[in-house]
Amino acid sequence: MNTTTKYAAAALAAALGVTVLAGCGDDGSAGSGRSKGPGSKTLTLVSHDSFNVSDKVLKAFTKETGYKVEILKSGDAGAALNQEILTKGSPRGDVFFGVDNTLLSRALDNGLFTSYEAKGLDTVAADTQTDEKHRVTPVDTGDICVNYDKKYFAEKKLAPPKTFQDLLKPAYRNLLVTENAASSSPGLGFLLGTIAAEGEDGYEAYWKKLKANGVKVVDGWEQAYNEEFSGSAGGKKTGADRPLVVSYASSPPVEVLYADPQPKEAPTGVATGTCFRQTEYAGLLTGAKNEAGGKALLDFMISKTFQEDMPLNMFVNPVVKDAALPELFTKFGERIDTPPTVAPEKITANREQWIQSWQSLVLK
């Protein structure tokens, strides 16, 4: 979900041979990456590459506020954040979207955002509001989970795994592929999920056992999901042989949406006891030239209009409590009510050490 992130839906769509259109202003063109300044009716949103919004929703924002949005996409979540850190104080835009709870402390420690309490914040789920200073606004959540290839497990007459502990069983030896925790957001989320489940004193022993059970590590989500995972459309084309992959709880609905013809049942499932919740945030960049426009956009991003547009464009969950989910999500996706998570302050204090420890255990 790079990011996000978040779910790399555009990459999956590409593997399925379709195109996902990104809304970038009225004409769909990419933004210039520079705010037009105070009084301007144009503002710039800086984001990771997986940001996607319907053109009609951007037009609704313009009609409601008078502001037009230009979107500057800047690589995956980590790369986009690093670029903003390098230009802090003189930002490339007015609002940044796509920093998640695994990287949030890096953004806050570098003073990237100006405090602003968005209108409508009282409608947002309380457990996503982790910054009391309102330097960032929660926008969406996504659950990183192991996905499985239903056909493989049916043919082998083998029950798919359900929990982190299940993945250590001999029956699942050499079946799982995951992403590098040092370079991939889903990979890092999966590592944090094992820390939440096994504890700070137990995760190293867990990973030693997982390595001994044949886990495969690749650089990023696209390679893991579209090249190594036998259950994905891309994996079927490459002859992939790993029926377990670290992806998202929203992956099965995507496999259904972009299939032609659409199947009656998703070809992939979710091991619901292997999840870690990501929350993505947006914030008003310190030094933004169009603060008024930026604040209006943050307000809009937690409106029902924007929130209900996200699931089928970015394959994430709304944070607004009464936002409706599309039938595709409710029918084919998995709802993860209480996934393991790690407090942001604990991630801040330990992230780099955890990653270094993971690298020494798994990659050497």
Share of residues in strands: 15-25%
Structural class: alpha/beta
Order of helices and strands: HEHEHEHEEHEHHEHHEHEHHHEHH
CA distance, first residue to last residue: 26 Å
Helix content: 25-40%
Which key features would you list for this structure?
single chain; 364 residues; alpha/beta; ten-stranded mixed β-sheet; 15 helices; 35% helix; disordered N terminus
Provide a descriptive summary of the structure in words.
With 364 residues, the protein is of the alpha/beta class. Helices cover 35% and strands 18% of the residues. It is built from 15 helices and ten strands. Strands 1, 2, 3, 4, 5, 6, 7, 8, 9 and 10 form a ten-stranded mixed beta sheet that branches. Helix 7 packs parallel to helix 15.
Give a quick precis of the structure.
The chain is an alpha/beta fold. It has helices at 9-15, 55-65, 77-86, 104-109, 150-155, 185-198, 203-212, 221-228, 233-238, 251-257, 291-301, 304-307, 311-314, 327-332, 344-362, and strands at residues 42-47, 68-73, 95-100, 113-114, 137-149, 176-179, 216-218, 244-248, 268-285, 317-318. The radius of gyration is 20 Å and the shape is globular.
